[in-house]
Write a structure and sequence with these properties.
The complex is a heterodimer.
Chain A (H helix, E strand, L loop, with lengths): L6 H9 L8 H8 L6 E3 L24 E8 L2 E8 L10 H19 L5 E6 L9 H18 L6 E4 L8 H8 L2 E4 L10 H8 L9 H8 L1 H6 L5 E2 L4 H14 L10 H10 L8 H8 L6
Parallel strand pairs in A: 3-4, 4-5, 5-6, 6-7
Antiparallel strand pairs in A: 1-2, 2-3
Helix pairs in contact in A: 3-4, 4-5
Chain B lengths: L7 H10 L4 E3 L2 E11 L2 E8 L17 H17 L9 E7 L6 H5 L2 H18 L3 E10 H6 L6 E5 L5 E3 L3 H8 L3 H10 L7 H5 L6 E3 L9 H21 L11 H6 L1 H14 L4
Parallel strand pairs in B: 3-4, 4-5, 5-6, 5-7, 6-8
Antiparallel strand pairs in B: 1-2, 2-3
Helix pairs in contact in B: 2-4
The chains are: A alpha/beta, B alpha/beta.
Chain lengths: ~290, ~280
């Protein structure tokens, strides 16, 4: 049911500034008020992974995460932005500690009365397997920090693509007060390759891209309530969605707190049925409970 | 003392509580028991296999959709039940979880959110003042450990070949990193965070205590008493330190050494946080 694009659609497409095509630092800067961005732990800090060189892998000076301070709508802010082009955006000891540390400092600010706004730009396969247990440990620390922050401020997450958000970091995205995604994004716990390995190709053919996006793509996640705002791949539109999320403030229960709603939905689902994403949109669609 | 078909989580919950676990809200894969631990009553919680589970991918001790959300419900109920109590009861997460449930339906229905909800409920119980100890008696794998145990104030493990901590099963990790399994195992010997065994994990400084000389499979009564003693000491430590966050994982001598980069990253972030903004 695709309509032919109108001339206005083409103009809009050409005027738009792709967010997905930006690197981690530019993505973070695009979220902040113009001219306010300041990098923390820049390249001169030389804080790199101690574990990758032991395995013959060249480390990167930011370990794949950029932390930018600045302002959002004039309020103090911090953006933690994951660089998918380094090790698939995976969470190692240092990259994870940068995110956890930034969120912990944000909590300190709130306890002192400074209303710092935290944003996480997820672009990650989850734990960096070369730093396995230290990646898993720091992801638990990121979870702890998000839960501790949520009563004080919205914690806003963005999954833009193209890597998406998987593994332990999909739990972090789930814990956010407000989650924004593009149609190019994917959000799931187990990446398609891992499911195929653990459960067999009959469960999932990891090369079936259409099936994968229909199940865990941004549009499906938004239509079934796992994502709050679906936006096009446009830097201004994403920044606007972030500002709107902070303007809404705290108060509404987080998705992870809506336990009875989700238990009832799971209980009503028949696991013998084939997985049907369109049927799920009808039964879990927004407006029903959210 | 344990039946051969009983999981380690099931058996240890029984050993420690002195009674078999009860299904939480009728969900057989999430069990709990309330039992004396020192002078107070603690709540013991475990995720156990259920061969008849409705979701086929969560029948052998995985944390799936029903397990994650049921854990969340149980933890939230535990917290609100103590809202007016003079002191919040200790919670012991008995950990033997083989992984999150891997499946198409699980992904579609949001197993990530089910696991997040459990982690959230543990974290909120901890922040509310429940002393929480995770006791590792078997596998503590990946997202399942994040959902059940990793939000505890203190982590305790039995030194046993049955006790493993890792981010991904060996076969899948080999495929994703494009290495043979043997190469992965060899790396674990040189690079402690890559290893699966609990001795290597202990080097990372995340554990509050590694309990020696207890047979995880067939503990004696004296073994069980020592573990109970370890749990009590950990709970006392939590109350004495009064820390409701996870900062104790960065303060051990082992962490100073092997998690030095974690500490340094935080130190420099704090230093640069407020500069001239």
């Amino acid at each position: 049911m695709t309509l032919a694009p109108s001339p206005q659609d083409f103009e809009r497409f050409l005027a738009r500034k792709s967010f997905i095509e930006l690197g981690a630092a530019d993505r973070a800067a695009a979220i902040l008020d113009p001219g306010t961005a300041r990098v923390l732990l820049g390249p001169f800090d030389r804080l790199t992974s101690p574990w990758l060189p032991l395995q013959g892998i060249t480390p990167q000076s930011d370990d794949g995460v950029t932390i930018l301070r600045g302002r959002i709508d004039g309020a103090p802010a911090v953006v933690a932005s994951i660089e998918s082009r380094f090790q698939g955006g995976s969470m190692g000891e240092v990259s994870g500690a940068k995110i956890a540390g930034a969120l912990e400092l944000t909590l300190n600010d709130h306890l002192k009365g400074v209303p710092t706004r935290p944003v996480i730009l997820f672009e990650t396969g989850g734990v960096r397997l070369q730093e396995a247990n230290l990646g898993l440990a720091v992801i638990a620390e990121i979870h702890a920090a998000i839960v501790a922050l949520r009563p004080h401020t919205p914690v806003v997450g963005v999954v833009a693509g193209l890597v998406g958000c998987f593994g332990g970091m999909s739990l972090a995205a789930g814990l956010c007060s407000h989650l924004i995604a593009t149609p190019q994004a994917r959000l799931g716990m187990n990446g398609p390759e891992v499911i195929e390995q653990e459960a067999g190709v009959a469960e999932l053919d990891s090369s079936d891209r259409r099936l994968i996006w229909s199940l865990i793509g941004g549009a499906q996640r938004a239509a079934t309530g796992f994502v709050d705002t679906l936006v096009e791949d446009d830097a201004d539109a994403i920044a606007e969605a972030v500002r709107t999320a902070f303007a809404a403030g705290v108060g509404a229960p987080a998705r992870t707190e809506q336990v009875e709603t989700y238990l009832a939905r799971i209980a009503a689902y028949d696991p013998a049925q084939p997985a049907d994403p369109l049927a799920m949109r009808r039964t879990w669609g927004e407006g029903e409970a959210a | 003392m344990s039946e051969s078909n009983q999981s380690l989580g099931d058996a240890w919950l029984n050993h420690l509580a002195g009674v078999p676990g009860e299904a939480a809200f009728g969900q057989p894969s999430v069990i709990y028991a309330d039992a004396k631990l020192g002078a107070e009553t603690a709540r013991f919680i475990a995720v156990v296999p259920d061969p008849d589970a409705r979701f086929p991918r969560a029948r052998t001790g995985e944390v799936g959709l029903e397990e994650g959300w049921t854990l969340a419900r149980l933890l939230r109920e535990t917290r609100t039940a103590d809202d007016d109590a003079p002191s919040r009861r200790p919670i012991v997460a008995v950990v033997d979880v083989v992984g999150q449930a891997y499946g198409l339906r699980e992904e579609m229905l949001g197993v990530h959110l089910a696991c997040a909800a459990a982690a959230d409920a543990y974290a909120q119980a901890r922040l509310a003042g429940h002393p929480i100890v995770a006791l590792l008696v078997g596998k503590a794998m990946s997202g399942a450990f994040l959902a059940h145990g990793y939000q505890a104030n203190r982590l305790i493990a039995l030194r046993s070949p049955d006790v493993l901590v890792h981010a991904m099963g060996k076969a899948a990790a080999a495929r994703i990193t494009r290495r043979p399994i043997e190469a992965l195992e060899a790396l674990g010997e040189r690079v402690p965070p890559m290893a699966y065994d609990i001795q290597s994990y202990a080097k990372l400084g995340l554990l509050h205590q590694l309990i020696d000389g207890v047979n995880a499979d067939a503990p004696t009564a004296a073994d069980v008493e020592r573990v109970r003693g370890g749990l009590q000491a950990a709970i006392e430590d939590i109350r004495r330190q009064g820390d409701a966050d996870l900062s104790s994982r960065l303060t051990s001598p082992e962490a100073q050494h092997l998690r030095a980069a974690s500490i340094e990253a935080r130190r420099r972030l704090a230093e640069q946080w407020d500069a001239e903004v």
